[in-house]
Amino acid sequence: MSESAQPEAADAARRSVRLPRPGHLPLPFIGGALILGLSVFVAAFPGLFAPYDPLAFDYNAVLQGPSAAHPFGTDNFGRDVLSRVIHAYTIDMQIAIFATIFPFVFGTAVGALVGYAGGIAETIFGRVVDAVITFPFLVLVIAIVSVLGPGLGNMYIAVGLVGWVFYARITAAEVRVQKRLDYADAGRAMGYTHARIIFRHLLPNAITPAIVYWMTDMALAILLGSSLGYLGLGAQPPAAEWGVQIAEAKNFMSTAWWMGVFPGLAIVVTGLGFSLLGDGLAELLRTRR
Amino acid sequence: MSETVLSVEDVRKDFPITRGVLERLRGRPQRAVHALNGVSLEVKRGETLGIVGESGCGKSTLARCLVRLLDLDGGRIVHEGTDVSGLTGPDRRAFNRRVQMIFQDPYSSLNPRMSVRQILTEAMRVHDMRPAAEIPARIEELLDLVRLPAGSADKRPHEFSGGQRQRIGIARALCVEPEVLVADELVSALDVSVQAQVVNLLLELQERLHLTVVFVAHDLRLVRHISHRVAVMYLGKVVEVAEAEELFERPRHPYTQALLHAAPSLDPAQRTRAVAARGELPSPIDLPSGCLFRTRCPHAFDRCVVEEPALTPRGTGHVAACHIDAPVFEAS
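Structure tokens for the assembled complex are given below, as produced in the milestone run.
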């Protein structure tokens, strides 16, 4: 009795947490997690990987192609492109998270409330969302950044003001479906509060699409950060940021392709990581009925 | 057996039909589906009250009104002397602790992301049923009560069969120790082989826990088998109430007779040509005048068009809403 109690308890604990064994994880999830895990590690400790100071000029090695000393070549100031790509991870991973975390949290909460309330609240909300979505996203963000002034902080504010509506719309639609199911009624028949029904019962069943979209959105945020960096509205030179790097490379595209291609590849790989993780999460969080 | 637990008094429920903007501008009046048109009914302590009727007759709506899932548009529901129709917040919670519901669909009625333990623990915590330390033991007790295998507590709904899920639904309703259980089509979504098990479990629990059960179903034989009293509904009204045997042996309302005729019988001697109701169920949006059943009633006469019959006594504990008070109608 006492002998079997221990493994039983452990078994129960494992079952209540329900982490699938690594072998059962979806392949895209593993791939995405590996890429992003590595990216985050690089972002946290760029000094461990970068062979040179990303800001140090070297006029004896200007616009050199890839070589043993500079695997990704050097730019027009003789800065090591590899070191700059590596240091850019710090900024670009920050962009991915900070530009999306507020829209995700605020958007899903608003969407859950609005989807649950329905009626006039949902109608008004729908019109607000339509108004925001009518503007091209990038143009709207550029307009807001222009008013607030360039820089990463203002970029987060601009993206936050616009981005939450997408999460809210996705979540509202899903909550609207979930609230009509009998388990929501069972909660009401138990006398549960609306807050408990929305956030403990409906949201866990409604949030998966928003999480998957979040992953895509992080990749989009990096692209947006790079676009704004390219336009001079995001990260400011001489900071190492992929978009800034590509912007600097545009004048040397025909003579020094390596200046733009390697930051571009970093964007592609990171974006791929987020997409794979999104696909994997969709598989992992699928509701079994 | 005779004390009234829940009393339904002239309850009405309308579901408004959404009008388009154009219709609104044209001043088209708001229309509604009249789901309940003045239902009056008493639920007595310790009994099983069966509620039968065709689909669309409002029996599920009535069940949902009974547990306060729907607000009434008229009339009231009285629980042990208190009008519960307008209860909100803690009062409503206290009422729901005593009057619980079991849902029809064993698949959508359980939160797929919560284990059985989480489902039961949450309900017991919210209603402060047991000190936290005693909850695990109580869960085992409840699972045993509804005959779920040991070790079910930490599984999630998708790991169970339909019948087992319905038992989880019963356990969830019972964990707050209610006095009244409203079962809406408890077994209609289950395989026939499983139906009997679940129904027998309910009957056994009723006896052990002295429950009052309101059993909403369209399966006449099942209702006859388990109910003490039966109420027949038609188009959002109760048309006849009687003890189960009395109702099935001596139906007094023409609709009840039609319903019983329509039910297939395995006994050749019992087989009759269905005189039954003619035509289709009228639209619950535009209700007939007078008696709601007159459009399909083989015995309707001019009085039925102008005057709605009230529920009048037809013997001990037997009421029917019909202008004709004859012991047996000629099946013409």
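The domain at 4-17+32-320 of chain B is CATH 3.40.50.300 (Rossmann fold). The two ends of chain B are 39 Å apart (CA to CA). Further analysis is deferred to the final report.
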